[in-house]
Write a structure and sequence with these properties.
homodimer, about 650 residues, alpha+beta, Glycosyltransferase, Immunoglobulin-like, seven-stranded antiparallel sheet, 16 helices, Beta-AFase-like_GH127_middle (chains A, B), Beta-AFase-like_GH127_cat (chains A, B), Beta-AFase-like_GH127_C (chains A, B), Glycoside hydrolase family 127 protein (chains A, B)
């Protein structure tokens, strides 16, 4: 098998822009906002997560010789368990760790990964089947319940881990294991006679297969991903069929509807984002991948409608998504409760995956605006500043009952945010032919090759705390290049200079990206200024939960008020419409961040008396208050928190 | 065994007022607000509930000869099931039905009750043990898990049913069955050597035993109730002990803390209302009963503290209680979310039981105010106007997803609200020596004997729709009597006339009751006027969910706005602080009710655009709106509802 790394040389005309992300290994966070986050994740998060996987028995599932311990439980009477997707957790951990290895070799981490791979290889069944729990516990039940048991979801994460590990180290063993596993899936599922026409209810393998295809170039890998996406939602449902084969009644399905898994209708017919949020985002990511690889406008069209539905009607201001715990997902449009927001970290990360993929197809800043929103808010809130405590749910309001935890009984989120941050560099730049797109801002140095030319890009900026970005070019020789620079959707006043000369931004804007085409020489400078006054934002009137509430945002950063800063529950504050809010960089706050300070009123209980209800409103007294970036909440003393503040 | 009906002749001095409720059979709702509700419950609710109990297989648990059907399942791996408290459901149904039989004999209902009693008697074990599910399914496991399996809770409801049925019909069979069951409990539990020192985690049998004692006069019945209440919360916990006996680990308790069952400390030490709301209310009802029967100020004192905690910090404005679904109960003080309010119907009914008992001990209107609050709001909302649809949870805000159901997998609430309404008369009046207390207002005719004198009381009123109450006395001979007339706590301007002469209300008020002592003659009239302007109520500043919100109340009736009346989600309304709100009796609304009408602003989405968030608030347009009594919501077209309206 050959492993072509670059399949750019295709001939047929393409329907879409085909940007290719600049690999994360080429982008170094050598200062600024992301430096400390990426170092913390590499040096603290990755090692402690391996420790947790060991302590919590996740790796014990790989002790194939030993009799199953009580930890590796049989399927519960509910039919559900976390056990059978333990593979996904160490798959994601391997992926996260691998992204650090190229630039920061670590023999200890490599040895830990090799040990897992050896055990996986040892456990793999002769026909290629691979799911540790099934192999140990219920080998006869494999592939009998794609609706509930996540076998391909788990394999998908192992595939992503194997690809990342190969790319980091060049070691093929894990990759070969997973290619054999994929061969087995190809032998088992598909439209050909004798195969099962199934697909996994929890999407993930689809996008993993595209990733594998991009590495291997094996068309069967792309074809399998395409089959899974095309087959999804066909009626009568495969899930009904397999349920009956198990002697069970499809009507007893605990989630009631296959919309839970976006399998209620063919994907191209779907117009509203429904069901389990992570599943939805993984599916849509795969749809974007297949639109790209198969040059399929029908999938791009479906993605566009779904994206607009999500952004326009179902997304928290933080980029969190999926308001409901009961289905870990979506309910009705405009249902965005704050205190009970589920808004799983994984879902925000997965929206990052999807929106990034959409931007490669169609360079529109609405996609990269969403990416930036989750990056500074609803995804980053999922990990603590110390790098070893997490949120699964990312509420927008708390009375102090929400605390970060060291581990979770369903620990999908920690490794997801870890792999996102360790691969963060790839989200900054894309390139095609003689074009470079700059999606994100933040201090970094990137080195890339474009049309055979070495290009060095250096962003000097304190973004998102500061409005100014200097982009310095390093070139070996003068080169004609088109830069496409994202002008953030939140910014109402952006300016752009090239070597000191201000450009007409309005004239150069295409889908939210400023286009600058010229011959560049070494040392050229692009300067961008994104005015970022404190914004007071209001929710659509259909969002009942946010009636008479205001959210504070500065640049891409959403703010919240924490009890620990103001000495009372923020729910007692009333913000006046004309309050002046002043940003100030507070270097003492968790490594340094811009805080907002201003005047507010506080509902006073002193003269209220012992009753709970009274026929006059609480008296209000003036006071100052402080707001901090939402992603930094719950890193200090416990207490209440609020994003949507009451306006008076 | 003798059955003394009247044990009033005791000699020792008592610590408390000892009012005795006037039996519900002596109070006829011959007009006014409660007439149609009580007729509906008797003629529709009682028969349909028996049909549901049959259809849903609840009575099938009594087919002791047949092998258990799949419906009668073994204990689930979770250790939990509804099956083992099916007895409680038909126990409560028998109680509810019995309350109607004296004044409305119904051979068909009586035959249905007799059939159940016969089957129960047949199934009862030779030693008196009685729980249908255990006898059929797990006889060896009886009394092994008082923490989870509700055996005494179920027996308690059967005892209440048996007492009610005996009092209605004079038939002793059911009563004898339950006395034998109580004998068995007495043989099994207690402090004596050889007995188990257990008590049921779900309180109920305690208050049932006091009820039984009041009928039988058997001091062992009172002693057993006293033992259960005194034993509760003793450490080390009996629940730990029995859990270890089952070979399980007490640390695995699914609810984490015995506070769930108010068993975390001795009851006299408890100061905050915690845990499962219905359990708490049943316990406190029993504590009030035992304070009364045992003349025990320590229990009264504990009840007072707990009552003040509940009313002052944990009660919805509707009288709903227990905000959280996860423990069906309390969380932290001032946690009163609206859309996720659990506020179980049973808990509101049970608060009615407790507050009514407190008022007999200590005639303070704070207790009967609470009783009236649940009566017109948070309990009555649990049953539909047609008498055969129910709410288990009584939210204070909905986006339209809450609909009433015909039956429930845990159908404790329907029979609870049914027995409450069929026995409602008993809550109106109490008597002691030469005193009559009038707790509630609403058209009715009551006949009682006091010191051997026949007294007829006739309330002529449209209360709660109208402010005027005429209380006409019927007497055989002139009689000196003290009337104690509740002046509702919500009323800021009440007036009282006796035979046309206005009294000085301020001077006559004792703990919220106006005291009128004089010699009365036949035809005397007491007239009361309770001014009931529309009140705008605000919640304590610590209730974050109600910040900048206003609730509307008129008299004892809390209002809500339903989408079906205003054509949009009420969450879009903004109420101005100076809006005029006009009450109007709408005879077309569900049998007739006072509605409130006024001006409001509506947040408009027309000029909003496709985005979810915007840097200017929604524009507001003027409109009218209507509010209806909360207890009538969800009886018409489905749609959103809101009690706490946003104030602008």
């Amino acid at each position: 098998m050959s492993l072509p790394q670059n399949k750019a040389a295709e001939v047929k005309p393409r329907a879409f822009e085909r940007f290719v992300p600049v690999d994360h290994t080429r982008v170094a966070f050598d200062g600024g906002f992301w430096q400390s986050w990426s170092e913390t994740v590499r040096s603290v998060t990755i090692p402690t997560q391996h420790r947790r996987l060991e302590e919590e028995g996740f790796l014990e599932v790989l002790d194939f010789e030993k009799p199953p311990s009580p930890l590796v439980r049989p399927i519960q009477p509910s039919g559900l368990s976390m056990q059978h997707f333990f593979d996904s957790d160490f798959g994601k951990w391997i992926e996260a760790a691998s992204y650090t290895l190229k630039n920061h070799p670590d023999p200890d981490i490599e040895a830990k990964i090799d040990a897992i791979v050896e055990r996986l290889e040892h456990g793999q069944m002769p026909d290629g089947y691979l799911n540790s729990w099934f192999i140990r516990r219920e080998p006869d039940k494999r592939w009998t319940n794609l609706r509930d048991l996540h076998e391909m979801y788990s394999m998908g994460h192992l595939i992503e881990g194997a690809v990342a590990y190969f790319e980091a180290t060049g070691k093929r063993r894990f990759l070969d294991v997973m290619i054999r596993a994929v061969d087995h899936i190809i032998d088992t599922f598909g439209t050909e006679p004798g195969k099962l026409r199934g697909y996994d209810a929890h999407e993930e393998v689809e996008l993993a297969l595209v990733k594998l295809y991009r590495l291997t170039g094996d068309p069967r890998h792309l074809k399998l991903a395409t089959y899974f996406v095309d087959e999804r939602g066909r009626m009568p449902s495969y899930f009904d069929e397999e349920t009956r084969r198990r002697g069970e009644n499809p009507a007893d399905y605990v989630y009631g509807t296959y919309a839970y898994s976006q399998a209620h209708m063919p994907v191209r017919n779907q117009t509203q984002v429904v069901g389990h949020a992570v599943r939805a985002m993984y599916l849509f990511s795969a749809m974007a991948d297949l639109a790209y690889e198969n040059d399929d406008p029908s999938l791009k069209h479906a993605c566009d409608r779904l994206f607009d539905n999500l952004i326009g009607r179902q997304l928290y201001i933080t980029g969190g998504l999926g308001p409901s715990a009961s289905n870990e997902g979506f309910t009705r449009e405009y249902d965005l409760p704050n205190t009970t927001a589920y808004a799983e970290t994984c879902a925000a990360v997965a929206l990052g995956l999807w929106s990034h993929r959409m931007a490669q197809l169609d360079l529109d800043s609405k996609f990269t605006d969403a990416l930036e929103t989750i990056l500074f808010n609803g995804a980053l809130s999922g990990i603590s500043r110390d790098g070893e405590h997490y949120f699964y749910e990312n509420v927008l309001e708390s009375h102090g009952q929400h605390r970060r935890w060291k581990w979770h009984y369903c620990p999908c989120c920690p490794t997801n945010i870890a792999r996102f941050i360790t691969s963060l560099g790839q989200y900054f730049y894309s390139a095609k032919r003689d074009e470079i797109a700059v999606h994100l801002y933040g201090a970094n140095t990137a080195e890339l090759e474009i049309q055979g030319q070495f290009v060095r890009l250096r962003q000097e900026t304190s973004y998102p705390w500061d409005k100014d970005v200097l982009l310095a070019l390093g070139l070996v020789a003068p080169t004609r290049l088109t830069f496409r620079l994202r002008i953030p959707g939140w910014c109402r006043n952006a300016r752009l200079w090239v070597n000191g000369e201000q450009m007409d931004l309005g004239a150069s804007l295409e889908k939210g990206y400023a286009v600058v085409n010229r011959e560049w020489v070494d040392g050229d400078e692009i300067r961008l200024t994104f005015e970022m006054p404190v914004e007071r934002l209001y929710a659509h009137p259909a969002v009942g939960e946010d009636a008479q509430r205001v959210a504070l945002k500065r640049g891409p950063v959403v703010y919240c008020v924490e009890e620990t800063d103001i000495g009372t529950e923020p729910q007692r504050l009333r913000i006046s419409a004309d309050t002046n809010l002043t940003p100030r960089f507070d270097e003492t706050l968790l490594g340094g961040a811009v805080v907002l300070e201003g005047e507010a009123l506080e509902a006073d209980a002193e003269d209220w008396g012992p009753t709970l209800y009274c026929n006059r409103p609480p008296s209000l007294k003036g006071r100052t208050f402080k707001a901090i970036p939402y992603h930094l909440w719950a890193n200090r003393d416990e207490g209440a928190m609020q994003v949507w503040l009451t306006e008076k």
